[in-house]
Amino acid sequence: MVPGRDISSMMPGDAFGLPDTAALNKAADQKTSVSMPVRGRLVMNDSGILDVQLVKTNTAGAVKVARAVLDKETGYWGYTLPAVADVPAQTIFVSPADALGANGPLTLSGPVPLPERILHTGDQISAPQATDKTVTPVADDLDFDDIILVFPPESGLKPLYVMYRSPRNMPGTVSGKGQNVGNNWMGGASTGDGAPVPSQIADKLRGKTFGSFDSSRRAFWKAVADDSALSKQFSEADINQMKAGRAPTADFLESVGKRVKTELHHEKEISQGGAVMDVDNIKALTPKNHIETHKGK
Length: 297
Hints:
- By secondary structure, this protein is of the alpha+beta class.
- It folds into two domains: 7-169, no CATH class; 172-295, Alpha-Beta Complex (Colicin E7 immunity protein, Chain B, fragment: Endonuclease domain).
- Helices cover 18% and strands 24% of the residues.
- It has six helices and 13 strands.
- The strands form four sheets. It has a five-stranded mixed β-sheet with strand order 1-8-7-3-2.
- A hairpin with an 8-residue loop joins strand 5 (77-81) and strand 6 (90-94).
- Helix 3 (213-226) packs across helix 5.
C-alpha cells in the first residue's frame, strides 16, 4: 500500500460498454483518452467506510488508456501510476489468466512473491449479473481518478477499468482562517480569483476531520445555510439546496451547459501539492469563471 494512493477497485471493461479493443489500443498508443458516460470513484463516507460510487456524468468524461507491460522477472502485467506531489508512484500488478492458482483457491501469491499487494490474480474478472444500487443526487464538481488498462492478446486478459483514490478523496482536517466578506459574497464568484471562504465558516469547520473533500464540501454548504448573515444573500430554493449539502445555483449567464452550480476551486491544484482542506486554498467560482481559470493555467 502506498500512502495517498489506495487502488481498491478494478472492474471489467465489459461492464461499462467501453469502445472496442482496437479503439482502446489506438488511444493507448496515441496517449489520448476515451469517453465514458459512467465513471467510478472511491470515496470515504462519513462512517469511515470506503464506498465505490458509479456516477452517470452530465457529460461523457475522458478517461486515460494505458498498455500494461509484462514484468519478465515476476510474470505479472504492470502499469506504474506516475508520482504526484507528496504521493509516490505505485505499480498496478495484474496476473496473467494462466497464473498459478487460476483454477484453484484465490490467493495473493503468484509466479514470484511481490512486496506490493496483488490486485487481481487468476482467471478473468466477470461482470456481475445484477447489482445493488443506491441512487443519490449527483454532487457538484466531482473529480475522478481512474484509468483503463489494456493487455496484449497473449495475456488472455480483457481491458480493466481501475479506480484509485487521490488526496482529494482521503481523510483530512480543515485548516485556514478564511476572509471577512460583505453583503454580496457570491458577487465575487464570477470574477478574478473568485469568492473566498468566509471567516465565520472557517471558524466553524476548522479542526474538524472529514473522510474526503466531498464530505467537507457538504458540511461547508450546510454551514453557509445555517449562517444568518450569509443565508439572507440566497433565495429560499438555494438555502434548501445548501441545507442538503449541495451548492447554490449560479446566475444563468454564469452557467455552462449542465454546469449550473457554484463550484469550489483549489487555487493551488491538488496535483501540484495544494492543500485539500485548507480553506485559504479554496475559492467559490461560477462554472464560467472556473472554466476560464483553468484555461489560464
